[in-house]
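Sequence design from tokenized structure. All designs in this work follow the same two-part layout: the structure record, then the generated sequence. An example of the structure record is given first.
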């Protein structure tokens, strides 16, 4: 098996997106290709078909390869849940909650066989591996226990390309400085650079590229322009960029406030709202940013109880309650759904030190936290709201809590496995669900937004609604075309050690 690894000069330089592009490019060129990231730290996760939990980036990259994602593609996932404490997920399943020190001293020394076994299994099935690093390979205080960068490249005997984000500035210093801090054998693995997120005039950059190549003896394979790719973000570092900088809607628009919880997770759930015309969406974290929203969304969280207490401390809980009484629409997803209930119980201390917490009281539900996470893909149909009754829906669940509806309340979805999900208030203005990806059911989302527009006397949004799979496929294809245009494919193929495809 051949491999190529993309490492970054820092976090959020675009490694995940560029790996996605290479996955699609190599697939288009006829190779059996798969993604790999040895260790991922992210709260945006992905559920495989067999119910394993991995980093969302590797799930997306597998989609770009048109293959099913497996736990081997991200054998270790870290999900921060409190300061310096993270859930450690190994091969898609909960392993332990560990502090940073204990993880580095106790688990990391045992991790290499796990990574090697995953790589060996992938090598049996695929011809090329597109590997993604984490953060920077040159964190000198962490290098002795870094299994996400050069150690992973060594295990796969993969050449490395260094990625730098020119949009944030200091691109030449970050590339040269990273090389300088690598050990000699690590520097020997680096075969070139890619500069990402370029907005300027190329002629003004050219002299710097020439100097970089002469100074380091390594080629710059490409300069990739800044673009909103439509690809799911890997983690919360992307919250201040990409789709969260959607242009302001002109004229009449629904005012949507997404609560930026301190431990927000799977925030890609709200991505489809950025694609909807007539929607002005904002992330808010204080009452000062309130601005009377028409719709309030409480997203998922890695720690429902702590984030619920934060809502109350900031005054946002009171603002949400008053807005609901005044006619605003409120939606909760996963942890946000749990918060909308009357009570949350944690008798065994599964999530926090608090045995009982009072919820926002907007839905007639009670949640109890128990050991054993539910991670599953689900399908079903809408049954609890008038605007989309009978529509098919898909999604995935990742949660610890077990939520019970009070007698007489109605669910939102009827699932194919015989269960029901979610709860709907009597007036349908407040609802919640455990289904991550609920808004990716585009017909459902359009019907819900138009129902609100109708109630407010606003003009309905008409026209064709493309399915989520159609949108994602278009994004992967467009991203691949963009990167092909701005990268030296001959040099890339040479570095990987593959023959350049013959154009038909």
């Amino acid at each position: 098996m051949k491999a190529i690894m993309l490492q970054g000069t820092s976090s959020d330089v675009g490694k995940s997106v560029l790996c996605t592009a290479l996955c699609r490019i190599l697939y288009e060129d006829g190779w059996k290709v798969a993604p790999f990231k040895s260790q991922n730290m992210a709260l945006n996760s992905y559920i495989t078909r067999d119910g394993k939990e991995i980093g969302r980036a590797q799930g997306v990259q597998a989609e770009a390869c048109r293959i099913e994602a497996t736990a081997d593609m991200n054998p270790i996932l870290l999900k921060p849940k409190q300061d310096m404490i993270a859930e450690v997920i190994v091969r898609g399943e909960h392993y332990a909650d560990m502090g940073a020190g204990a993880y580095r001293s106790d688990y990391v020394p045992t991790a290499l066989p796990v990574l090697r076994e995953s790589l060996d299994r992938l090598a049996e099935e695929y011809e090329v591996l597109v590997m993604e690093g984490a953060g920077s390979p040159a964190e000198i205080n962490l290098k002795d226990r870094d299994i996400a960068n050069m150690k992973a490249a060594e295990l796969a005997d993969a050449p490395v390309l260094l990625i730098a984000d020119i949009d944030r500035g200091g691109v030449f210093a970050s590339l040269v400085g990273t090389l300088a801090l690598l050990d000699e054998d690590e520097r020997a693995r680096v075969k070139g650079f890619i500069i990402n997120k370029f907005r300027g005039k190329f002629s003004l950059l050219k002299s710097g590229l020439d100097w970089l190549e002469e100074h380091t003896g390594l080629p710059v394979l490409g300069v990739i322009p800044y673009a909103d790719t439509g690809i799911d973000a890997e983690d919360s570092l992307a919250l201040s960029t990409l789709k969260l900088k959607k242009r302001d809607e002109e004229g009449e628009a629904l005012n949507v406030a997404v609560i930026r919880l301190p431990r927000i997770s799977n925030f890609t759930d709200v991505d489809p709202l950025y694609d909807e015309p007539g929607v002005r969406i904002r992330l808010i974290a204080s009452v000062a940013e309130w601005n009377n929203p028409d719709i309030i969304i409480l997203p998922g969280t890695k720690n429902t109880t702590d984030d619920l207490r934060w809502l109350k401390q900031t005054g946002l809980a009171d603002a949400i309650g008053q807005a609901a009484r005044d006619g605003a629409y409120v939606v909760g997803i996963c942890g946000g759904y749990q918060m909308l209930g009357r009570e949350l119980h944690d008798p065994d201390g599964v999530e926090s030190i608090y045995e009982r917490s009072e919820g926002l009281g907007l839905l007639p539900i009670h949640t109890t936290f128990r050991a054993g996470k539910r991670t599953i893909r689900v399908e079903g149909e809408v049954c609890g709201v008038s605007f989309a009754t009978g529509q098919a829906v898909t999604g995935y669940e990742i949660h610890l809590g077990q939520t019970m509806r009070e007698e007489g309340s109605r669910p939102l979805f009827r699932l194919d496995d015989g269960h029901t999900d979610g709860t709907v208030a009597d007036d349908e203005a407040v609802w919640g669900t455990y289904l991550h990806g609920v808004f990716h059911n585009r017909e459902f989302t359009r019907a819900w937004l138009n129902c609100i527009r109708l109630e407010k006397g606003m003009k309905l949004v008409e026209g064709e609604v493309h399915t989520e799979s159609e949108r994602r496929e278009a994004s992967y294809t467009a991203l691949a075309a963009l990167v092909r245009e701005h990268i030296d494919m001959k040099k890339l193929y040479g570095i990987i050690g593959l023959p350049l495809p013959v154009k038909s």
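The chain has a mean pLDDT of 93. We note this feature because it recurs in several other targets discussed in the main text.
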